[in-house]
Amino acid sequence: MKQRFRRIVIKIGTSTLTAGTTQINMPRIVSIAQQFMSLLDSGAKLVFVSSGAIAVGREALGNPDLPKSIPGKQMLAAVGQPRLMNVYGQVFGIYGITVAQVLLTNEDISDRKRYLNARNTIESLLMQNVLPIINENDTVATEEIRIGDNDNLSALVANLIEADMLILLTDQDGLFTTDPRKSDNAQLIEEIKGEEITEVIWFGAGMAKGELGTGGMATKLQAAEIARHSGATVVIANGSEPNVINRIVDGENVGTRIHPTVDSMESRKRFMLAGAAKDSWISIDQGAAKAFKKGGSLLPIGITGVHGQFERGDIVWVKNKDGRDCAAGMVDYSFEEINKIKGKKSTEIEKVLGYAYGDEIIHHNNMTVLGSEA
Asked: Could you please report the per-residue DSSP string of 24-43?
């Protein structure tokens, strides 16, 4: 039975967007938009991680001969990013796809509060059927530009939205046993399974296991290692292949398919249970407990008490009226904020606090319910 992928992060490199030239290839952009439209029409939620801002900036300035410095690349990214988004807005708009720009760095995902803001923004866009187009914030990043971190960024985004597939499109057919540009004996690795990626595969990508990648297949393999441990299937493939995105999603044997070590549900459960603070919890009434069983979120009206100290973005236990742990989840409000709005309707949050991060204290997507009964 064919697996259905519902949340997909697609990262496309500069070489694919330019078709190996010095400028953006418009037929390639049109093809990408057509494939995205097909997936969106099928009900999939997509996030597009796009490289190319520096290449577009270089093209706009007439391909100047600049030193390979961080400030020079940042300048090119500043020129190119709005132009690239303009191209996407126009081309994707032809197919009825509304796009939004989200600029991130690793810090936006590693910092708890910024992680929450990024996640909530992307989730809100997906709920409105808007395509988030994410890029490394190259105008302020430093090390990120040097190591070509959009690969790892895409894996972090896949984890952020709990994607079940990450597609990395490049100018090569996938992972090989050795560099195919240097050896005629290089063989395509069609599939990777198991808990560990072997030393041989890491070596084929141009690095030893545990080393920091410096671009190319090295960072793609690092990205795959991150994503597969959060429950996502990863495919590395050649972006010039016809209809490559849809073929990958349909399960065709294209590129290198790297299987997850756990399913996304198990990954989320492990993350929640391992990260929950032992001395902090939220007490709820019977109505809220019943709502969990039906896949509902935790709303302030169902909260009867708050215990311990925690901040927005922490993972806390949820206890039912009998004092038993019935769930663990990431809170969108701090201890002090929840204490003020407990027992109130979601529509009253802004009135009480003067602001609101959303209607839920813990969204059902960020909660693990324990046992068969709450």
From this structure: --HHHHHHHHHHHHHHHHTT
